[in-house]
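PROTOCOL LOG
Step 1. Enter all chains and additional molecules of the complex.
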Amino acid sequence: MANNRVLQWATFARTWWIFDANHQCHIKSAKRIALYLQGKHKPIYHPLSDIGDHVVVINTAGISMRNDFWRKWKYNHHTGYAGGHSVTSAWRLHELDQTKVVEKSVYATLPGNLLRRRMMRRLHLFTDDNVPDDILQNVTDQIRQVTVVPRLIQEYTQEELDAMPKLFDWPDDYEIEFKRRKEDDEIKKYLK
Amino acid sequence: MHLTRQVLRNLPTPYGGYDISWKRQMYKRLAWHFFGRRRTCFRIQIRTVERALRNSTFSGSARKEFFKELNTTRLEAACSEHGVIYKEFLKTLDENDVQINKTMLEKLAIYEPRTFQSLCDMSIQYQKDNEIYTKNSVTPYGELTRGLQKPML
Amino acid sequence: MSASIRSGLKVVCFRKLLIPLQQVPSRCYKKGLSKDLRIQYKSRLTVGPEPDRHRSEFINWNYDSEVYSFGKRLGEDLNDDILKKVFLHRSYIEREKKKIQELGIAVGTSGLDVDHNEQLAKSGEQLASNYVLIYLRNAFPNYFEEGIRSIHEYLMSEDVLCNIGRHLGIPELIMCDDFPLRESTIVTTLMAFIGALEQEKGKERAHLFVRDFILPQLIGKDINEMWNVVNPMGLLTAVLHFQKRGLPEPRLLWEGASSTLMSVYHIGIYSDQKLIGKAPGETAQIAEEMAARDALKRLCQTQESRPALLLGKLSENLKLDEKKVNISAKDIIEQFSPKESTASTSSKSIFGIFKGNHSLNKV
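Step 2. Run joint prediction.
Step 3. Record the structure below.
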């Protein structure tokens, strides 16, 4: 009795997935996340039926871009009024909201139909790995990462560093670490 | 002057032309599924119906394309569930003389998942025997473990 | 040309003398037809549908040939006398007798001393229901007797038999008092036909008819849904106890979206550390009940993947054990707990095994 009903329930149940965005390309990972949001990983997929899953993305603060795309990648926005066009570079948007870059790329990857907003509501973005318990409780499976997480130079031990072949030593007054220009700090204050 | 000509001049002609209700009924029949005044109002109805008839000339090929694409998406999903590449899966079926077409494979994947799984297992075993097996879609890195993250449950 | 004009004028003159000549419609256009049809359609709506009439009220009706062809259609070579007896109901004879009495003729001379089909129907029904039971017991040897009874009840129900009768073309041939026909009349006629087969051709031929027409109604039906088990977990415990296997242990296999409305739990039932059934459900409790049902299905071998019923050509050399009786669920439960009427309490105690999971402790 009613066994077919529960089978139906299990077939159309929404699974919750977790995705670690640390050191991941936001475009490549958006492609993979969009598959799960649409339900394209299920053999019962149909573009008109709403059978997508939930995806929880953690560590969105740690996403990466290749070359100097942080500087070159631009987000355009127009208010609709005269002179309302604005261009924001990726690093600035990331500074304003650390989940925004992933959200925008997933939104762009999803098909532009009426289901898009509903699918976006099933995407849960978190800047770090502090996920509320009521969300983490639902998660049953994970989506594998898109790229290999690189090992930072700080993570290498001194022995490994010594064993590595070296062509030259940096001069003592050379600053390897990234330093922001003064102008940028001023803009940041202005924005806040 | 001929007599017939004289008669024909005064011949009663059909009043008001032919009966237009048949033509209207035809359009009404074609417009049953439209909404609002497109369905009820003849002058709007006729435009919509003619556009629909024009569109229907290419909908045949469009439908085929759509279902082909849908079939591929579904089978790719079903194959990746069991860790096979879709194209390799089809190749191995062909090489082993398993004569099931894509439509039936899709139906098997949805309604008889265990049967489809056994087909996938067969495909994987064949690929392993011939040393051409590559795992599908699942990257071997980037695994979250419960120890590294916050405890999940 | 002139001839046609003349004839046209003639018609016009006969129809309505007052129509002016200028408005005479041309012959080809039939301008009034659509209007006429519309009026007819509207008047049909106001009047309502035509009452049902028996086929014999129309022309081209030959009762003898219809009855003859009915026998031929089914591939049975019965003689016409017994076939006519099959379709003759008592109510028809009584009505005719009353008519004759009203006319003042003695009943004895009217030729209405013929037999009606009641006796045939009785024997036919007995044969059919007996054969269905025997067949089902042999087809599902591990299923409970109660389940077999409920499948039998479904097959011999009025709806199913009436449906068969209608598709065989029985209703048009029935001679009875009431019209439109009652369902029970069609059923008795069908049973009378089986009785006639038994009488004329022997038991085996009648069995073949039942196997060909009544038993195929099971195709595509879920036989597990016909018998409603109230407490599947209790029954499962009793069955496992009867088979001297370990008690059932429900375990959580997977859960998903557990803090939302769309939660799903998969629960498997183990006995002696072997998985004997599993099912999903909205809550852990529902899933556990469904898993128990699934386990019962597997134990009775009535799951979806069972082999198909032997019907048609496959059943030509079928040998059925007529004396076979299946195990009754009631007996098993009484053996397990002879004092308690059902094993309803056992389900609670089993639920207590389930301590490892937080969600079930709430339940």
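Step 4. Note key features.
The radius of gyration of chain B is 32 Å.
Chain B is about 65% helix and 0% strand.
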